Amino acid sequence: MSRWxxxxxxxxxxxxxxxxxxxxxxxxxxxxxxxxxFGPLLGGLLIAGxxxxxxxxxxxxxxxxxxxALVQQHDGGSRVEMLYVLQHxxxxxxxxxxxxxxxxxxxxxxxxxxxARLQRSLPDAQRxxxxxxxxxxxxxxxxxxxxxxxxxxxxPWAWWSFYCNxxxxxxxxxLFIGEYLLRYRLHPEFExxxxxxxxxxxxxxxxxx
Length: 209
What we know:
Structural class: mainly alpha
């Protein structure tokens, strides 16, 4: 991927995050705000349902669309805010489940699966490390839900919106890059893997599931 393309993607994601924060802070109940803020989730469910013939995804998209329509029709207010919180929590819960279920006895941890796609062999030390890293990501997603609920209950709505739209993606990026930089300080014997190849391995494992 070229630097210009990477920069364009980063700029687009940053722009969407700031736009979402603005819409969620000042016009959370407006129909066009709801369309922009729930559009990616609805689109993702529809694409997954159609492309993979995944009935639960299609049912989830239909159910979410119905709930949004009912809330909008009955003048959402705090109900719309709760839906935003639930969307944030549900997405992190799905990710936590996706990582956590691979930690069961007899299963291969998710990040171990990714590492196996990038390297011909995995020594025991690397298998143990990737398992611990899978645990860390699972715990991270659960912690993000806890922080979200605390902010929603105790802080102004604008604070929660900033946390959801700006701090959430930044925290994920910081953990991803921080682990990448720390990995070779702790384990210089590990093979070098680029961030781009790690992302490709994630997509490959996700597609195979």
